[in-house]
Amino acid sequence: MQVRKAALIAIIAMAALMLVMPIAPIARAYTAAPKPAQEVPYGPWLDAIEFYEESDEAAMLEKIDKGERHIWLWDIGTVEGIRRAEESPNIEYVKAYSGCFNLFLNPLPRIKIEIPGVGVVERFNPFGIREVREALNLYLDREYVVKEIFAGYGVPHYTIWPPVRPDYNRVYADMKLLENEYAYNPSEAWDRIYKALTDAGCTFKDGKWYDPDGNPIVIKFWIRKTPAQRNALGHYFATELEKLGFEVIRRECTGLEAWMFVYSAIDDWNIYTEGWAFTAISAYDDDLPYYMYCSPWTGTVFEYYNASAELRDLAEKLLMAEYTSTEERNEWVKELARLCLEDSTRIWVVWQITPFPYHKSLTKMVYDITGGFYSLYTLRTARFTEAAGGPVGGTCKAGDRFLYVSAFNPVGGFKWLYDALIERVVYDPGVYVHPHTGRYIPVRSTFKVETAGPNGTPIEVPEDALLFNASTLDWYKVGANVTATSAVTFNFIFGKWHHGQDITMADIFAALAHSYRLAYEEDPIYDPYSIGPGLETFIATCKGIKVINDTAVTVYIDYWHIDETFIAAQASIWTGTPWELYALMDAAVEAHELAFSDGMSGEWKVPWLDLTKGDSLTILKSHLDDLKAENYIPPYMTDPDLPDCAKITDTDASARWSALDSWYATYGHFLVSNGPFYIETVDTVTPMLRVKAFRDGYPFKADHWDWLITPKIPEISVAMPDMIEIGKEVEVEITSTVFGRPYSDVDISFLMVDAEGNVVLEKTPTWDETTERFRLTISADETSALPLGVYTVYVVALGHEAALARVVVKSVSVVAGIVYMKSLVDELDAKLSAEIEELRSAMDELKTAIEEAKASSAAASTYGTAGIAVGVIGIILGGIASFLARKRP
């Protein structure tokens, strides 16, 4: 349930042919016959995609160059790699901003750690002190990290809000103030850390820290081995911690080891080099503070650690969209930026600039302006050029950085990006974010939103609308006097499941019931590690679901957002999993033979449920045999309160169990879904995974998303004086274009910031229809209020059709009137001096030319002498005329 990146040889040969062949045959030989138009197929353009594990950048670029691979679902991370891509005629790339690196700190005051030569001991954790964690922000030189470790391909990252996403840019001035406050200041950091540790009873002696028990303070630092920049970041900061006087145990690890020893544990780690991939842009990141600082979804440690009540309360209110206006939400965004910096269980370091490479034979791929090729749409729209046999058909060979890191199941699996990239082509969501705006658009669910807003009259929920009772495992009508803030009517585009069975309303309701069961603590399938913020919000706010017809429902929800598409996303109840597959997984989980999540897998000591490989297959096949023999139907799916279109009949069940059994017999796995590709081959040895186009039963043709191919990101330029005179009015003109044409669908902010980082002036330009430019006026009163000095001007532009901000930065001086006049005089003096010098130089050249003419006149004829004289006079007159014309006002 969905609730929430030789030519010369050829030329010579043609010339030889022209010598021996008549013209007409040449024309016939080199005029290609028209290629028959290829019918646009259902499903994707490609016939198949093969995913290969490709973690070595240089090797992958070599393969792309040779055409052995067509696309890398990872970014080029080195200067050498970017240079290789730019120099190769076969490699192209798109640039995005898809990921960040940070430090994840264990906030528990005491933890058990394994110390070489000592064993496992419980020790004091300095990062259990909030002030120490916060001070480390000032001890981290982000500018150095960006320049030296990431070779300039990054942006310093300070706050919970990514510096390239809309939430940051809406409150740009306040973000700059916070960045200035938490900028690199090692002496201040040391003072704060020293005070916090000594107040806690620690001592600093001979350059080393000792805990209150007299033991050296030891920090277990888990450092990811790859990519190289992430590894270098870890070792850089480990060295910095050693300079502070801590003993650091550096433990290099793989991603799988990180899951086992960091995310699924509370002991034996103090700090970890974390990385996040943001696979899609979002217009509003309401869930980010809660997700990163409060939810066990991002680490078991949050089962035991609570952030401040103020942070938790505001993060939960933002998660639940309890604000009443854009202005209030912006205030919450600013406050949460500060609260998260004060907490600092996660310290943000760098946001990457990420070039995604591909072979020139691929074309017209839709990419996300944040997520690049991580986008849901990229492989759905990829096709080969006509020269390479396209656009229809062919097998794309894609490089995925790792394969099979997490289990493949739709409940608590696909937790790693690498696996989620495969999930994206196999599963269809109901709604998904637009890759350029971050607002939600329909995929398999069109929607219409009605809302009372934060202050309007609530919407009445029909008495026969349904909800699921997880304690009694049945559906019930909500009854009278139930209201909701919003109502979203969805029309589903059903089609078929991969195994050929029709998708029905019963699949929707079975997925709903499964979600309620998953979140109910008394249910045998309860799994807190599989409950994300979106599901929590849905269950807490859903007031009822009314079936309109066989393909449409209205979902009533106590949820409001300033963007109605986010209301639709929160209310979405589409599913990518057939009901019988949920029932099969539930049977194995209820028996405690498999677990949906890695967290429960660790607690129960059973395998993490995987629909495609491993020990799970034998267990699931055994349950499939039993369920098929019984012709099992979840009892709540025959509930009398369900409309007929949502009930499961014996005939339906028989067809579904037979189809799933046949699918497993054919493909050797159980992963059945509804996306444009289905999994054909799972090869864990190579390793490789092959997906094949799903055409018989997929509702969309391959060109369905072609309207998203080109993002409309405005280009911005600013015209204003470099020097502003106090008490004088100043005009500012801002040019905004898309594809070279004037473009007004953009929100622009104008900020002036003083040398201390304070915003002294903030204005909003307006569009001038006459000049087709944005304009603003800084009044005489406003310039009079500005102290003398040098200021930084930021012009921040956020387009309506592509939410990647363009920021223009200018340096401007504010001067007194006499200073301003002197600057004009100095400028005019410099200009005249240059022109006089230029004229003097021109005259010297003319003088030389005359002397040369005189020297040669003795040997010239009368006619020749006259010609030279005329020529010299022409040069002189022409030069003077040209100079005068150029200088004429």
Structure description:
The protein has 26 helices and 39 strands. The chain has a six-stranded mixed sheet. A hairpin with a 2-residue loop joins strand 8 and strand 9 (208-210). The longest helix is centred in the last third of the chain and has 41 residues, at 817-857. The chain is globular. The chain starts with 6 loop residues before the first helix and ends with a helix.
Which properties best describe this structure?
6-stranded mixed β-sheet, 35% helix, 5-stranded mixed β-sheet, alpha+beta, disordered C terminus, disordered N terminus, 889 residues
Give a brief description.
This protein is α+β, with helices and mostly antiparallel strands and 889 residues long. The chain is 35% helix and 23% strand.
Write the layout of secondary structure elements.
Layout (H helix, E strand, L loop, with lengths): L6 H14 L2 H8 L17 E6 L3 H10 L4 E2 L6 H9 L3 E6 L2 E7 L4 E6 L3 E6 L5 H7 L5 H8 L4 E3 L9 H5 L1 H10 L4 H14 L3 E3 L2 E3 L7 E7 L3 H16 L3 E7 L1 H9 L7 E7 L10 H6 L15 H11 L6 H18 L2 E7 L1 E6 L2 E2 L14 H4 L1 E2 L10 E6 L16 H10 L4 E3 L6 E3 L2 E7 L7 E2 L5 E4 L4 E4 L5 E2 L1 E7 L12 H14 L14 H9 E8 L2 E6 L6 H8 L7 H12 L7 H7 L11 H15 L19 H18 L9 E7 L4 E6 L21 E5 L3 E3 L4 E9 L2 E2 L3 E8 L5 E5 L2 E3 L4 E6 L1 H5 L4 E11 L6 E10 L1 H41 L4 H26 L2
Helix pairs in contact: 5-9, 13-14, 20-22, 22-23, 25-26
Work out the number of β strands. 39
Low-confidence stretches: 1-33, 859-877, 879-889
Structural class: alpha+beta
SS element count, helices: 26
- Biggest sheet statistics: 6 strands, mixed
Radius of gyration: 33 Å
Distance between the termini: 72 Å
Relative strand content: 15-25%
Shape: globular
How would you write the strand order of the largest sheet?
A: 7-13-4-12-10-11
Roughly how much helix do the residues carry, as a percent range?
25-40%
